[in-house]
Write a structure and sequence with these properties.
Order of helices and strands: HHHHHHHHHHHHHHH
Distance between the termini: 29 Å
Number of domains: 1
CATH topology: Growth Hormone, Chain: A
CATH architecture: Up-down Bundle
Strand content: under 5%
CATH class: Mainly Alpha
Oligomer: single chain
Largest sheet: none
Shape: globular
Number of strands: 0
Radius of gyration: 20 Å
Amino acid sequence: MRFLWLSPMIGVYVDRLRRQIDFRQTFSSLRHPNYRLWFWGQLISLFGSWMQTTALGFLVYELTRSPAYLGYVGFAAGIPTWLFMAYGGVFADRASRRRVLIATQTAMMVLAFVLAAMTFLHLIQPWHIILLAFLMGAANAFDAPARHAFVPDMVPREDLTNAIALNSTIFNSAIAVGPAVAGVTYAIFGPAWCFMINGLSFLAVIAALLMMNVKPAARKVSDATAWQDLKDGFSYVLGHRLIRTLIFLVLVTGLFGSSFVVLIPAWAVNILHGNATTNGWLQSARGVGALMGALLIASLGRFNFRGRVLTLGTVAFPTVLLVFAIARWLPAALLALVASGGALVFTFNIANALVQTLVKDELRGRVMGIYSLTFFGFLPVGSLWIGLAAEKFGEPAAVIINAGALLAFSGLVALLVPQLRRLE
């Protein structure tokens, strides 16, 4: 009963969103040449990445028939996050972010080709996939902080929220199309071709990074060790109440919310009685919703009620997850996933934009490293947990438990940290 006040509040937020929308603002960041190169390079690369992610999940399930093993693979990919990602943030403050991204994208391209070759040769085993997931996670541990911190190097501060929203548009356009194409490709040609296409797709973003003319960002000369820089970053986050709350919100959403995606291959088979193509449609539905949400945020332009939009997303996401958990008809499940994708984008995009707006420039890489650590680090823990829970209680019960926990947490944040809603 304590959270009944959220209902009229959400109605007010939705009305403000409707009145603020201006689709002429949607692609305003593309007027900046460097960001334009990034946009198209990432769009191609992420299309391949989601083909690989979708095919890899179904391949693991075909090899093991175990939802828990899906969680093990996700957990293996997350171990390097704990080991390296915070230091990746320090590295992003000390080195050229563009060069870091070229190196990490090249490493992930090579790993995709190795995975494709082993699959073509029928050598691939579950333990190989766990090892390759660990290595891909290691590359991502240095890639993610630099990628987040690189956005302000390409666009001015006033276009930052729009650029972050367009980044999500890129990401979710790939989710909307990549998994569906992967499902068909997997069914007709096998998983190896999905991995090969992903390897080739990295060439687009590497070429875009090489073509950019990025003004070198000013770096504060410091004699401090990497460990001291890292401690300074954590001290800053822990001492800044709003940034601390935003990052903790991302942590819990990754732990109990977005981790449900690892169950989609098992859901397609066990709950909806489908196959690899069904898995692709489910993955794509989530991407369609996320794409719609990202375009909506981009169309809002330079709006000044981001805290309220964030609150809307944090309550809506677990609510639609509960709907998905009880859906047993494919069209109903697809609609619930569309809604969940949109709500999740509202949460992550706005949280990212608010952190980027609040943080000091000289600490941006470290803070975004901590931000990335909370998401990428706890998502695998959530994947492991939900995989084990699904093994013991069944997939629907596992999703219901997670969604209920996230809904309770989101309500508490809205109640206890009202300053978050007032952020512009």
